[in-house]
Amino acid sequence: MNQETLNPHELRARIRAGELDLPTAGFAADYVQANLMILPAEAAFDFLLFCQRNPKPCPLVEVLEAGCFEPATAPGADLRTDLSRYRIWHNGELSGEVADIKALWRDDLVSFLLGCSFSFEAALIKAHIPVRHIECACNVPMFRTNRLCNVAGRFSGPLVVSMRPIPAALVPAAIELCSHFPHAHGAPVHVGDPEALGIADLARPDYGDAVPVLRGELPVFWACGVTPQAIAVASRPAFCITHSPGRMFVTDVLNDDYLAGRSSTARPPA
Amino acid sequence: MNQETLNPHELRARIRAGELDLPTAGFAADYVQANLMILPAEAAFDFLLFCQRNPKPCPLVEVLEAGCFEPATAPGADLRTDLSRYRIWHNGELSGEVADIKALWRDDLVSFLLGCSFSFEAALIKAHIPVRHIECACNVPMFRTNRLCNVAGRFSGPLVVSMRPIPAALVPAAIELCSHFPHAHGAPVHVGDPEALGIADLARPDYGDAVPVLRGELPVFWACGVTPQAIAVASRPAFCITHSPGRMFVTDVLNDDYLAGRSSTARPPA
User: Scanning every residue of chain B, which has its alpha carbon at the shortest distance from the alpha carbon of A153?
Assistant: First the structure.
């Protein structure tokens, strides 16, 4: 199995069958992967507004109508089964992690798919910019920060960032390249000095795995699609479901299709 | 009065006082102008989803919480008074045009500000690309097309486009330049052949004023922020309020601020 060239359909089938219980970084690398947030319809306007006001952590790839679980970005897929692990939240507290959510599904649930940094990681690697957690075959390190997201209705809370160590001379190229991926968090939000973001220790991420920062490298921080999980903790919606950090939904949409002028949605412009 | 350099605060004050009852093309040219759609909260999720699925005609500049009429993009402004004309719609039928909507305001109304082509017109002029309706001091011509928008909940209907005649040799430059304004409809959706869009006669626009297409020019078509008005006609929401075509809300946000990496929202990233 070549994980990079596995197609999304095959990848989702293996995940659904429980054969691939791993973070999805580096898998099906040409395709858009997505963070997942599922909320009852009564909270959906507020969360959609939250995404509109916080496009760096929450770039909308697709929002489904209430009750729908087959995304337009992956016909035939099922959002209830096609991620390897889901987190269940009640009143902002994590109440469990499960392999599918069929038993929890309700007709009033609205699913949000948010772009993911794995989209630009493939481009970084093609540009000979190292991506440490892929080299280390572990999950990307993620940190809650002291930066607050823009409030929307009932939703507020801290920005979560992912961190990649980048050699100093390659930082400009990495930033320029990522700026072409607004559907996948776009350019970083911060370079160097973790303390300025309220991060005390890079070796102790809040989500994912620690990776070494080598001599001559700067830690570079991108807005992260795990932000909605920190928002759930801070804002305590009665019920929501998310993916487990690093274990994304893999769509059928090529990253290149976004780069070719379809930057803000997976659906073709009217 | 130099209309181009009038600042947004002064411009809104004149409009509010009824001293400036004109289309806003060419006024306060450095600032983001916005189309307006106001809907009751019960329809707001569907319309926000419509915008997310149709970012070319409906690029979101700002969405306000229910009942709010002071935009973050223009502190001190009042969306109920600061446009020169509003259109009132009941069940998809235009029931009147008024100079302010204070008497109609309700606590459940949600206001949507959508980007406007006037943002890129200033850039076209700076690039020595002619903008005919500004030369003619009239409103931009707008047409309903045979292209359907992506459906979202209760909302569906045709794409509306604005048309600008561009000298053939300047068409590539015009398109490239506008591609940098995704918050303002971005690159055009069509070049030449109006009939392919279902437009029978360029001399008879559905909204705004006709302008001449000269020898050596091609008609170039951009997705237009009047689209929600055609959507209202097609989808017949019980009640909505829009701006009158060409008479925009003028924000305090510089177009340059969007070009500097804030392309999908007027609010700074978290």
Answer: B65
